[in-house]
Specification:
The chain is built from 7 helices and 29 strands. It starts with 5 loop residues before the first helix and ends in a 5-residue tail after the last strand. 13% of the residues lie in helices and 34% in strands. The longest helix is centred in the first third of the chain and has 20 residues. The strands form 3 sheets. It has a 21-stranded mixed beta sheet that branches. A 4-stranded antiparallel beta sheet has the order 17-16-22-23, covered by helices on one side. The chain has a 4-stranded antiparallel beta sheet with strand order 20-21-25-24, covered by helices on one side.
Amino acid sequence: MATPNPLLLSLISLFSLFHLAFSSKLTLPLSLLATHPSSSDPIQTLSLLSSASLSRAHHLKRPKHSNSSTTKVPLYPRSFGGYSISLSFGTPPQTSTFIMDTGSSLVWFPCTSRYTCSNCVFPNIDPSHIPAFIPKLSSTSRIVGCKNPKCAWIFGPEVNTKCPNSSQACPTYVVQYGSGTTAGVLLSESLNLPKKTVPDFVVGCSFLSIRQPAGIAGFGRGPESLPVQMGLSKFSHCLVSRRFDDTPVSSDLVLYSGSTSDNHDDSGGVSYTPFQKNPGASNSAYREYYYLALRKVVVGKKHVKIPYKYLVPGADDNGGTIVDSGSTFTFLERPVFEAVAEAFAAQMVKYTRAEDIENRTGLKPCFDISKEKKVDFPELVFQFKGGAKMALPLNNYFALVTSGGVVCLTIVTDGVAGPSVASGPAIILGNFQQQNFYVEYDLEHDRFGFRKQSCKK
């Protein structure tokens, strides 16, 4: 997961002389964070989201690196396609904005007064004034040492053999995402949540990033992730509609610690499917993902034929389905996508294809329905192991692209909006398709749950 990047490493050298001095239920607000230029042109917006989704898919497919009570955190929608939360670290607490990401594990924030973000031209973002955590203002901030076992969470157990002395700091990390990169050092800090403090929490202090104007809260399966460090038994969220992008509207990210066996507050009507283990793991980053056992994709009345090798991850790590809050549009490997797209095209053959819009957005199929009084859209259903069926609302898989009445399927693949990457997960369930679903990651029982509901509070 942590790998060199030439631009970052050249810039990191400029910082080489710089030294840093320095069972419950929690509910946090979850919202969308703007990191793409805002545009009144829906074609441009969808094109940007399509491109970002594909970049994210390429990263996930070939990553480079690594008695119950609850806490609620507000979760806000943003126009770049992700959802953000606010977390407080340090003594006294300093609050930072983080993008919630179930496809990675490291938690990091912009850090020090010298934080630099390259290519951070986003709406409502001044690259020279990005809020940053200041370690020297916190009495609990400590640099993680090279021989600290937690350093191995990022760099592996062999890092201990590369430490010349016990006082050396853990090496500088470089983490690449689909949309950008970040680099920094690991800190041991206090995470301050409502009515709960987590001491000695390992967090990344990033002093340099590319296209990362906010921190990332990794919710993956790695030991450095927020759920693992907090010892969560479960976490859940409900993603509000994208029409509330960059507004004060939020939903809740709920964190559970302690056993949830007797807690049925949110379980009514929830369908569950077990998480799947990736049997390969030649790339350790794949072990951070949440794999699901997708059995069928149904379009209207047609069961789409999907080869088995795309549904189940093999020993080479290829294939299988993951769920990812950091991806916007769902990604399907090209053969899977073609089968799904053809099923839609065949059942909507009476509507005119808008090929010019397809070429401009990277999305397909698109249809011109401007002259139609009534449109029959086939239903899209994902069926998982155990019988759980996710029947998507129409707004979760078709978007109105132009005021003139063109709609497009909001699913991406290789070779349409970008080059092909034939490795890693074959299917990535993005957050656009999870709008207005209660979604539950039950870590205690190793299962994924969901139910359709309105997420706007």
